[in-house]
Amino acid sequence: MESFKLYINGEFTEGSACFNSLNPATAQPWAVIAEAREPEVDAAVQAAARAFQSGPWPAMTASGRGKLLLRLADLITRDADRLARLETLDTGKIIRETRSQIAYVAEYYRFYAGLADKMDGRTLSIDKADMETWTRREPVGVVAAIVPWNSQLFLSAVKLGPALAAGCTVVVKAAETAPAPLLALAELFHEAGFPAGVCNFITGFAAACGTPLTQHKQVNHIAFTGGPATAQHIVRNSAENLARTSLELGGKSPFIVFEDADLESAANAQVAAIFAASGQSCVAGSRLLVAESVKAAFIQKLVEKVAPIVIGCPQQQETQFGPLCTERQKTFIQQTVERSLQQGAQLVTGHYKIEGDGYYYPPTILDCSDSPAADSVMQELFGPVLSVISFRDEAEAIALANNTEYGLAAGVFTQNLTSAHRITRQLRCGVVWLNTYRAVSPLAPFGGHGLSGSGREGGVDAALEYTTTKTVWLRTSDEPIDDPFVMR
C-alpha cells in the first residue's frame, strides 16, 4: 500500500497514529495515512504563527508571493495525472473528471498569483484639512483551511490561493475520508519553495484533530467547506479564539425548467447537475422544479439520458458514474429514499442494487409532486437522487425554489430574458446559473447564505476575506495641537 505523511514546518513527519484509507470502488484499503492529533495540530499552528511573524515570508514582497504561486501552478500542471489518479483512487470520482478538474485547479493559483500585488488600500478624502489618511490591506494571520474529501484539490485551491496571495500562513486539514491527494499536494508546495511553516498539511479525526485546530488561540481565520452541523461546531469552537469564519456549506439547489425552455439542453444540464460526480457536490441540482405542461416530456428525456450512463470502475476513461465515497453515505441515501417512497414519492428510475464490491448507488429519480415535503426534497443527500416537483406558474416556482433552509445555488432554464432577470432577483441563493449549470471560474465569487454558509470563495472577494484593513492617519500641520482634551 502507498503511504502519506503529514507536512509540518517544512518537513514530512509521522503522526501520533495512522489509519487506512479505503478505495470506494473496491471497499479495500489502499493507503496508510499519518494521523494528526493535538500535538501535531499544535506544532502545525505554531509553525504557521512563527512563519507569519518572522522570517522570509513577512519580508517577501507581494509580487514574490505571486511568483511562488505561479511556480506551484506549474508543478500542479506537471503532476496533474498523478494527482488525478490519487483522487480517483481515494474518493471514487471518475478519472475523466479528476483529470479535467485538476488541470483547472492550476488556473486558480495563477489567478491569485496575479492578484497578490493588487490588493491595494486607498487614500481617503478626509474631512480634516491638516490630515492625510489612507488604508492598507494586510493579511489576517494564521488560517485553518478545513477541506472535505470531494473535489479537495479544487476546494483547497479556493482557500490557499487567496490566503497565500494575501500573505497569510495556513494549516490545511484534509478530511480523514480520502486525504491522500491533499497530502500529496504538500510535496508540490515543498518543491515550489514556500518557506517552512507557511503551508502545513495535516489530517485526522474530529475530536483529536478538528477541535483543537479550530479552538487554537493562534488561529485567526477558519475557512471551512462541509456540512452545516459540522460548521455549527466550528463556529462554537471559534468562540475560544474569536477567529473569523468563512463557511461554504451544503445545498438543496433548485433546477427550474419553464415550459419555454430548450428541453434538450435543460435535460443535459440536469444530468450534469445531479449525476455528475455521483451527485456528491454541494451545488448538486437535486430539486427539479418543472412546469406542469412539460413535466412528462422532460422526465422522459431524463430517463432516456440516464439509462445508458456507464457505471463502473472510476479509473477507466469510459466510466461516467462511479461509487459513493463511503458506505455510510450509501446507507444514508438508501434509507432516505425508502422513507421518501413511504411518504408518497414515486420511483421513476433507479434505487436498485448494483452487484459487486464498492459503494455504488445508481442514478435515481423520484417524482415528489404529490409529496413536496418528502425527506428527499428537504434534506441534502449528497448523492445521485433527483426529486421532481411540478409547478403551474412563475410565482409557484419561486416559492418552491425558496422553500429550503439552504441558499447556495439555482439553475433557471427559460428563453424569456425578462422573466430570467425577474426570477434571478427573487431567488434566495448565492449563485444563479441561467440556461447552464455547474460552471465555475477563478474570476467569479462563489458561496451562499442560510445553511449554505457565509463568505465567498473565488474572485477578488475571496482574497479580501483573508485581509484586514489598517487605517493610517498623518497630521500635516506643524502647528501645536489646540486642545488635547478634545477629539479631533
UniProtKB/TrEMBL annotation:
<comment type="similarity">
    <text>Belongs to the aldehyde dehydrogenase family.</text>
</comment>
<dbReference type="InterPro" id="IPR015590">
    <property type="entry name" value="Aldehyde_DH_dom"/>
</dbReference>
<dbReference type="InterPro" id="IPR016162">
    <property type="entry name" value="Ald_DH_N"/>
</dbReference>
<feature type="domain" description="Aldehyde dehydrogenase">
    <location>
        <begin position="17"/>
        <end position="472"/>
    </location>
</feature>
<dbReference type="Pfam" id="PF00171">
    <property type="entry name" value="Aldedh"/>
</dbReference>
<keyword id="KW-0560">Oxidoreductase</keyword>
<feature type="active site">
    <location>
        <position position="248"/>
    </location>
</feature>
<dbReference type="InterPro" id="IPR029510">
    <property type="entry name" value="Ald_DH_CS_GLU"/>
</dbReference>
<dbReference type="InterPro" id="IPR016163">
    <property type="entry name" value="Ald_DH_C"/>
</dbReference>
<dbReference type="InterPro" id="IPR016160">
    <property type="entry name" value="Ald_DH_CS_CYS"/>
</dbReference>
<dbReference type="InterPro" id="IPR016161">
    <property type="entry name" value="Ald_DH/histidinol_DH"/>
</dbReference>
<protein>
    <submittedName>
        <fullName>Aldehyde dehydrogenase</fullName>
    </submittedName>
</protein>
